[in-house]
Automatic annotation (TrEMBL), chain A:
It comes from Penaeus vannamei. This is Large ribosomal subunit protein mL44. Residues 89-229 form the RNase III domain. Its main location: mitochondrion. GO terms for cellular component: mitochondrion; ribonucleoprotein complex; ribosome.
Automatic annotation (TrEMBL), chain B:
One of its GO terms (cellular component) is mitochondrial large ribosomal subunit. Keywords: Mitochondrion, Ribonucleoprotein, Ribosomal protein. GO terms for molecular function: structural constituent of ribosome. The keyword Mitochondrion applies. Residues 39-112 form the Ribosomal protein/NADH dehydrogenase domain. The keyword Cell inner membrane does not apply. This is Large ribosomal subunit protein mL43. Belongs to the mitochondrion-specific ribosomal protein mL43 family. It is found in: Mitochondrion.
Length: 346, 184
């Protein structure tokens, strides 16, 4: 068994090349390359990988199973890398998943310890505390950064930020994969996300809430960069929503007008529709049919109302100070141009 | 290896940064570096010198990097760097001098961990325009909506430079103004 394992570990080193599998034979032919070794080499690697899978020995080594592994040093460097002062014991608690504790208990019982004396605590409590801090800070931050964006939209942005995918992405990005103590390897996205929330909770317990909020801003809220806010929060019926808003504001009915059209009755038809209220332009959009163009124009008008167009300023990060806003933004049901005038935008 | 073969294996990419690094704060992407060397062999001499002279300073300046030393009898020295995105990089340090190793460590320290690939461009944006996509009517005058076609004005040849006749007329007008001011 040892000899087989020794061979596989040497195989594992070359195998990542197979993972990004491109069809070398055809692309080499396409580029006119007369290489006689590339395709046979890749085929051989693939053959070996399949053989290992058949034998069931594709074991992925944990980083902590290596000789050169010092958990104390790793935990110390983790805090230093992020520029934060963590309390060592609290950080260790945050990195301990409950599955690890139950696994350890079973292992000790198998070794003949009747009552395993484990002093570890899992990160459940810290994760709950951390998730509250993340949700609380990001909602206040976004209300302040996007003062005209309706409360429903702000809430769906926060739901996106606190979703397990985003949490896991951030957790993996700051290097939690090797540090988490958990049963499975590699850790599942849920475990990593929960562990990241626990790290935020641990930072709050170690330092102050304001320091913790800066951490959340720098690592979690920045995930909105490059994302279209109107795609994360999509209004189902934009035309109706706009009609309601204009009605509440005492403005005339929205009137879609065809501004341009081209290629009518062809495959490449384009229509450009503008929306006017009281003969005043409020938005425009285009599409392959008049219906889609009107829908797009209504979306554009709403984007202009809520100041989330592509040309609107980016979210404030870095040294800029943001006043957190506890009271909710206007709801879509209450949103009107009159009320929006009273909101100070920066 | 030809450049074609290089592209087949390593591919190409755009400039990118892990986890929006640097927007809020900068996080060093190198998470651990392992120095593998032999305590007696001549090939590791530069590495041993580096460890004696410079390693402690390196570790002090970079508290976020975990440094491991791994002596291996009669084997060639190498550096193994691990990055936050899970990538690894090996640098063979066989027969390298201590100053060479210092430069390689500096190289590993400053990398993002993304694979070394051919960059398609040296700049990249996900949103090339804040004005929205181009349409056939971008920057068009809406006047053509209400124009009756065929229109003489729009069918006329597009002239950018002055014709010879116009230039002569202009000269004549100038002369007239000049002579008029002289007489008065």
């Amino acid at each position: 068994m040892m000899s087989v394992f020794g061979k596989t570990s040497s195989l594992l080193r070359v195998l990542p090349a197979v993972a990004a599998c491109r069809n070398i034979t055809t692309s080499a032919c396409m580029f006119g390359i007369k290489s006689r070794w590339v395709a046979p080499y890749r085929k051989e690697l693939l053959k070996r990988q399949k053989k290992m899978e058949r034998m069931g020995i594709t074991h992925q080594l944990k980083r902590s199973e290596y000789i050169e592994w010092n958990y104390d040093a790793e935990v110390y460097a983790f805090g230093k890398r992020l520029g934060e002062q963590f309390d060592n014991n609290i950080l260790r608690e945050a990195l301990t998943d409950s599955s690890y504790i139950s696994q350890e208990r079973v292992r000790q019982q198998e070794l003949g310890v009747p009552e395993p004396a484990l002093t570890m605590t899992s990160n459940n409590e810290l994760a709950t505390a951390g998730s509250h801090i993340i949700a609380d800070y990001s909602i206040k931050y976004l209300r302040s950064a996007l003062p005209l964006f309706p409360e429903e939209g702000i809430r769906s942005l926060v739901d996106y930020l606190t979703s397990s995918e985003v949490m896991a992405e951030v957790g993996l990005g700051i290097g939690l994969k090797d540090l988490i103590l958990c049963k499975e390897y590699p850790p599942t996205p849920e475990t990593v996300g929960k562990c990241f929330q626990a790290v935020v909770g641990a930072l709050n317990a170690s330092t102050s809430l304001s320091q913790c909020q800066l951490f959340v801003r720098d690592f979690v809220v920045t995930q909105l960069i490059g994302k279209d806010l109107n795609e994360i929060w999509e209004i189902e019926n934009p035309m109706e929503a706009m009609q309601d808003i204009l009605g509440r504001s005492g403005r005339g009915e929205p009137e879609p007008r065809l501004i341009f059209e081209s290629g009518k009755n062809t495959l490449e038809a384009v229509y450009h529709v503008g929306i006017y209220s009281d003969k005043e332009f409020i938005g425009s959009g285009y599409g392959e049919t008049v219906g889609t163009a009107v829908d797009q124009a209504a979306r554009d008008a709403l984007r202009r109302f809520f100041q989330t167009t592509a040309a609107s300023p980016p979210l404030p990060f870095g040294k800029e100070n943001v006043k957190l806003k506890a009271e909710p933004n206007l709801s879509v049901e209450d949103w009107s141009l009159e009320k929006a005038k009273n909101i100070i935008t920066c | 290896m030809t450049s074609h073969t290089w592209n087949l294996f390593w591919g190409s990419s755009f400039v990118r940064t892990p986890l929006r690094n640097g927007v809020g704060r900068y996080v060093q992407q190198l998470q651990r570096v392992t120095f593998k060397f032999c305590k007696t062999h001549g090939g590791s001499q530069g590495m041993r010198e580096f460890i004696e002279k410079d390693l402690v300073d390196f570790a002090k300046v970079n508290p976020g990097v975990v440094v491991y030393l791994k002596p291996r009898r009669h084997r060639s020295p190498c550096l193994k760097a691990e990055y936050l995105n899970g990538e690894e990089e090996y640098i063979s340090a066989h027969n390298l001098s201590s100053s060479d190793i210092k430069k390689w460590v500096e190289y590993l320290r400053m990398r993002s961990g993304n694979p070394v690939e051919r960059l398609r461009k040296y700049q990249h944006t996900d949103h090339p325009s804040i004005q929205g996509p181009w349409t056939p009517w971008t920057h068009r005058d809406p006047e053509i909506n209400v124009t009756e076609f065929p229109s003489e004005k729009l069918s006329a040849a597009h002239v950018t430079e002055k014709t010879a006749t116009e230039q002569v007329i202009e000269l004549f007008e100038k002369q007239k103004i000049a002579s008029g001011s002289n007489t008065s």
